[in-house]
Amino acid sequence: MFEALLPRPVRVDPAAGVYRLTGLPSQVSTVLTVDPVAVPRGFRVTITPSAVTTVAADAAGAYYAEGALRQLLGPDAFRAADIHEGEWTLPCGLIEDHPRFGWRGCLLDVARHFLPKAGVLRFLDLMAVHRLNVLHLHLTDDQGWRIEIPAHPRLTSVGAWRAGSWVGRQPDGTPDHDGRPHGGYYTTDDLREIVAYAAARHITVVPEIDVPGHSQAAIAAYPWLGVTGAELPVWTAWGVSENILNPTDEAVEFYREVLTHVASVFPSPVICVGGDEVPTTQWTASPAVRQRAVDLGLPSPAHLHGWFVSQLVDHLATLGRRALGWDELLDTGPLPPSTIIGAWRDNGRRAIESGREVVLCPEQHTYLDHRQSDHPDEPIPVGYLRTLADVYAYEPAAGVLGAQAQLWTEHLDTPRRIDYAAFPRLSAFAEVVWSDGPRSYDEFRRRLERHHLPRLDALGVEYRPLTGPHPWQTRPGVPGRPRNLT
Hints:
Elements: E1 11-12, E2 18-21, E3 31-34, E4 43-47, E5 52-56, H1 59-73, E6 88-91, E7 93-97, E8 103-109, H2 117-129, E9 134-138, E10 140-141, E11 144-145, H3 154-157, E12 161-162, E13 166-169, E14 172-177, E15 182-183, H4 188-199, E16 204-211, H5 216-221, H6 249-265, E17 270-274, H7 281-285, H8 287-295, H9 304-318, E18 322-326, E19 340-343, H10 349-353, E20 358-360, H11 363-366, H12 388-393, E21 402-407, H13 415-422, H14 425-434, H15 441-459
Parallel strand pairs: 3-5, 8-9, 8-21, 9-16, 16-17, 17-18, 18-19, 19-20, 20-21
Antiparallel strand pairs: 1-7, 2-6, 4-5, 4-7, 10-11, 12-15, 13-14
InterPro entries: Beta_hexosaminidase_sua/sub, GH, Glyco_hydro_20_cat, Hex-like_dom2, HEX_bac_N
Region (Disordered): 467-486
Keywords: Glycosidase, Hydrolase
């Protein structure tokens, strides 16, 4: 057993020798054929002293085969330039593999903290190394709007910028913001470039436009979108804002226009409409909104949540797209049957029982912004304690589209912080969603230390060491004020 691969080990025959390469080619396989009868996205590679032969189910399978071969070449194969001395060799043997799930994703929240385009492209490279194939790009929230919509320019001229960011996390923090303006957005061409870059790595970019909650940045840009019509700032705090969209025909039409543009930029067959964490305080307090519910024949203002989302799901259908929404939508009344549910609560049990197609995103297991230890210097200890071993132990339910990890960025304000939160836990998650069958954490950790962490080093990833954070990765250096010691 040769232990070089994540997600799976490779069976080799030491007695058969090695295949020798004089340089590092762009394609390692010398013979490539496509066999559509094989398992989708699967591959079989045979390495002999004279040839490297790949049989792939499709183009994605061929891409994953090349990635597996590059892993066998060692960490230097992942550097930006060839610094390897001497010849490259591959051990002779057989690699045969295919993915467990069709949806192997990661959500990247660029709304709370904007990640410049180069950072997104780099993250796609890291996803590709781990054979993840869906980037769920969270583009809008209370704290920022990150996608250019030419018909509504204030969404970015106003909604993409905030006066500062909430420091720390209550009670270990302060309700004041740090006074540092923050913002940024992607132009249409930026996003088309991201989509094309992802496609070359067999990654689909699923955009998210969150409605009718998590919308204060849009309301700041166009106050008439809000219930009160009052001018609001782009939110500087974290959590759930009570400022949600006014359920009017005009607001629905506004978002139809937004989604039409989104669909013109993103070829993904799935577009996320959010639908999570929608406080209905303002709707209940508004006579106009209460009357709106009556006029639509709804039993209460709270049911406007499902009505609003359904209008946009139906619109996406006219554009040939399916909607993805968070599992709160199961509580909001009838939804078009094509709606995919992103299940972040109760391990997806209700979503699966609903009979809908499901992507598992459970907070208990896959939120990588959550703390990695109980050490007092762990940076901004958010949410559940989820160690590397915990993530590796996650067992997704059967009969779903797949699963995805989440990187919410309230406290991940730089690419270095994203690296620290994501890796190597995202490496563990990638193996879970790729490889079926029994798993051993001890065996995984051995492969991780011997082979995969050196790859991450070669890629320049500032991951969390297995023994705990480096001094510069602890508080008070990241981000916000020192912890409250009183």
